[in-house]
Ectoine hydroxylase-related dioxygenase (Phytanoyl-CoA dioxygenase family) (Paenibacillus taihuensis), 313 residues
Amino acid sequence: MGGLFMAFHRTTRGSLSDEQLMQYNRDGYLVLEDLLDDADMEPPRQAMMEKVSMIADELFEHGLITDKLTNEPFHYRLAKLFDGLTDQHFLQFGRSWRDRLEGYFHLLRNPKILDAVESLVGEEIFANPVYNTRPKVPRVAAGAVPWHQDKSYWPDSNANPVVTVWISFVDATFENGCLHIKPRTQNTKLLEWHAEKLTGTSYTALHEHQLGSRKTVALPVKAGTAILFNDRLLHMSTPNNSDHVRWSVDLRYQSTEQDPMPQHGIGFLARSAKFPDRVATLADWLAERPEHEGGGSEHEQLQRSKDARGSLS
Ligand SMILES: O=C(O)CCC(=O)C(=O)O
């Protein structure tokens, strides 16, 4: 096995060590302990709390709750709001959230995340439109995610793997439903999936017999830890049997040379050495301006998109 990696030549920079890079390429995933600190997590945490307040308002207006629980802390408020309600009530707000709230933009552009991603995809980094906030609420069946490959959500896009950056916003434990993966499955072909029926979601799922004999690794991690993984890697997460919300995000990045997947929404240029002035600003992102468009006159924009097409082909 060692010989396989002897010819390893690094072609990218970024913050990952050669060893981490080899680990990611070999195992299909990498754990970056304590990647984010409290200051990094505060803006997205504010966005999560903002969304929870909107939900509380809606539940209150519909007479489903009598107390908005405004003093409950981040870990507990959403769990307690849905305490006496059903899975269907929860799913009305989506099993995961993709809101354009300022705090998420700061997270998606966080230099610590982009530095790590740069080691994997190079310095022209596109933030894929598929980014999720996952509030895994106790007893809500949709919190448990079946075995799947992320690529099953974009089977026809991108020959090159998209990098998922999964980050826990509370300590992810066996009890609250941490991530589980099967190392070294990233080189398997895209497996035939089916739509999962029990949880009322449209999760793509694999049957037990498709999982092969690869061992499963559970990844309990502390808040602020990131797990990077390849979009063919088999992974799942277990139910939340705790009394609090298992908050996490899953962000995705790829090189600008790949399909921007407009069928999934609008991504953005997150970092660029070639075109630093085209990197999306908060205003671009909030307005959902298409990739690489930037500001300027219509003529300048047209010229830029022609240049970009030339440089990306
Ligand atoms: O956060 C989870 O529980 C599952 C995450 C997942 O499946 C993903 O990020 O693709």
Remarks:
- The chain has a mean pLDDT of 89.
- The chain has one domain: 16-273.
- Residues 62 and 86 are 14 Å apart (CA to CA).
- The domain at 16-273 is CATH 2.60.120.620 (Jelly Rolls).
